[in-house]
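During the reporting period the student researcher (J.K.) took over the structure-prediction task from the postdoctoral fellow and processed the backlog of single-chain submissions. One of the processed entries is reproduced below for the supervisory committee.
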Amino acid sequence: QVQLVESGGGSVHPGGSLRLSCAASGFEFSKYWMYWVRQRPGNELEWVSRIAPRTDVTYYEDSVKGRFTISRDNVKNILYLQMNSLKSEDTAVYYCAKDLKEIRYSGSYYRGQGTKVTVSS
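J.K. obtained the following structure tokens:
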């Protein structure tokens, strides 16, 4: 079955960096759009970034552009999110997610259990 296991979360001061990883299994990782989504305290789930199946095409939510970088390793089946210049408003549970459709982007996804990121002084 599909498994998405996030790691790398933790507590960091404003301006700091974290690198999230997501180990994927149970599906052909290289054939799916992959996402990072987050849920900030008191807020709904929101999309952060996504990356195309086999190219370097990436998209970012406006508030993280220039600070976050999504990438993937289609050999190791791992999705990454490098987060730099972290702000308190980035505090959230971050989820790795896979599109429900193979190859094409649908905007609907299945997500993992999440990893918590806390940005605080």
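The committee noted the following: The first strand starts at residue 3 and ends at 7.
J.K. will present the remaining backlog at the next meeting.
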